[in-house]
């Protein structure tokens, strides 16, 4: 029913699908052949706007209504919970890298970072980039540790690349060849390609490797 987010856990591949069930949101795990494995109930989660897994197969999700971040085992045991509402106006997509959480702030036009305990560290965004990030809703970390941020403001796809160590802008790119809207998520594939979904167009975009 109305899947919100889909996550592929790479080693021992399984799909984690977030949709609307009896509860407001639920997580279901399927194998690569589409066979149901298990369900994780989340009675206190409203709307999941971001979902990511860690290298040790923990599931990280962000609730855009409650501004909660939850870290679960793949069997549903709660390991960590913190609220990011003091720093994030509207949580969107989320990434995890080098023991830090990176959360898109859709209305705050920035990325807020938190340490592995959920303590706020710093923001990536307007104060460094001159206001280039507008309504970010896609984020991932490249194999080199660069923070890749996507937005679709002005009905064009924008990709911003930041240094994860100091939050400084490295490069920005724009795809002017097609009118887009409703960006929902961004992933850097293992071959370096950038993949994003424009939900208003029901279209997946795949861009070649970005060279800086």
What does this protein look like?
With 212 residues, the protein is mostly beta strands. The chain has one helix at residues 126-129, and strands at residues 5-9, 14-19, 25-31, 36-42, 48-53, 59-63, 68-72, 78-83, 91-97, 100-105, 110-115, 120-125, 138-141, 146-151, 157-163, 169-175, 183-188, 194-198, 203-207. Strand 15 (157-163) and strand 16 (169-175) form a beta hairpin. It is globular, with a radius of gyration of 16 Å.
Query: Count the strands?
Result: 19
Low-confidence runs of at least 5 consecutive residues: none
Q: Please tell me what the overall shape is.
A: globular
Percentage of residues in helical conformation:
under 10%
- Tell me about the largest β-sheet: 4 strands, antiparallel
Number of helices: 1
* Proportion of beta-strand residues: over 45%
Backbone structural class: mainly beta
């Amino acid at each position: 029913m109305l899947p919100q987010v889909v996550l592929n856990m790479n080693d021992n591949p399984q799909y984690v699908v977030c949709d609307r069930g009896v509860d407001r949101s639920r997580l279901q795990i399927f194998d690569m052949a589409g066979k149901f494995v298990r369900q994780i109930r989340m009675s206190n989660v409203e709307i999941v706007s971001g979902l990511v897994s860690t290298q040790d197969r923990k599931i990280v999700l962000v609730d855009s209504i409650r501004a909660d971040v939850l870290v679960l085992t793949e069997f549903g045991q709660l390991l960590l919970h913190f609220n990011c509402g003091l720093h994030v106006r509207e949580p969107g997509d989320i990434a995890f890298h080098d023991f830090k959480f990176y959360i898109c702030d859709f209305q705050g036009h920035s990325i807020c970072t938190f340490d592995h305990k959920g303590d706020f560290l710093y923001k990536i965004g307007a104060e460094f980039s001159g206001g280039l990030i507008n309504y970010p809703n896609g984020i991932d970390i490249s194999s080199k540790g660069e923070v890749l941020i996507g937005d679709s403001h002005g009905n064009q796809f924008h990709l911003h690349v930041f240094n994860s160590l100091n939050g400084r802008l490295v490069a920005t790119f724009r795809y002017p060849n097609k009118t887009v809207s409703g960006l929902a998520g961004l992933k850097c594939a293992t071959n370096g390609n950038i993949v994003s979904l424009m939900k208003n167009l029901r279209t997946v975009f795949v861009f070649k490797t970005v060279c800086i």
